[in-house]
Design brief:
The protein is an all-alpha fold and about 230 residues long. It folds into 2 domains: about 100 residues, Cytochrome c-like domain (Cytochrome Bc1 Complex, Chain D, domain 2, Orthogonal Bundle); about 90 residues, Cytochrome c-like domain (Cytochrome Bc1 Complex, Chain D, domain 2, Orthogonal Bundle), CATH 1.10.760. The protein is built from 12 helices and no strands.
Amino acid sequence: MKKLAAAALGSLMAGGMVMAQQTVPGMADRLAACIACHGKEGRATADGYYPRIAGKPAGYLLNQLQSFRDGRRRYPMMNYLLANLSDDYLQQIATFFAAQHPPYPPAVPSDAGAAVLERGRLLVSQGKPAQAIPACASCHGAGLAGVQPGIPGLLGLPRDYLNAQLGAWRNGERTARAPDCMGEIARALSPEEINAASSWLSAQPVPADYAPASAPSTPLPVACGSMPGTGAAR
């Protein structure tokens, strides 16, 4: 996979970053480096690490591309690939993948015990009210499908990927535009709680009509930089 990604990256770079600053035809052909890791149409691959990007809200995808370019998220290949790309071109990439809707594969059964899965279910659906930690569903939607323009869906993602990202937020390796709501939430969770939530989420089937909501159904419980003006400050 690394050789394939490197070859695709080399092909893209050979095309010239000057072209990346322009609106060009054949967008799918231009995204060979993305597809090498994230799979055809951005549907993800079976290695359990690279996430699905197909069908995510375009605003969310743009935020992540900008974060990799600007150093708020760190992964060497992504940082290098995006370093010289303009906001306009990143928007084109985000819009392309947001419009892709390939089917999801069946959920992978979890090897976590029943107690761990139940703990995860409660964190996702109820949060930790005594510690003022909101439920995942209160921001990501009742069906966990995400909310336009900036909140992603949580189903159909591998447990290893979810653990890695929540762990990165908890350890300060991943940040977002202030207020960094996910950073605050992840730091308030224990590693065991993160594993429980990731185990439960990754084991859930994805409904056929899974798609982000057009807007929050209620005000978000916390202020979040990815959704300005939609949440209350704690």
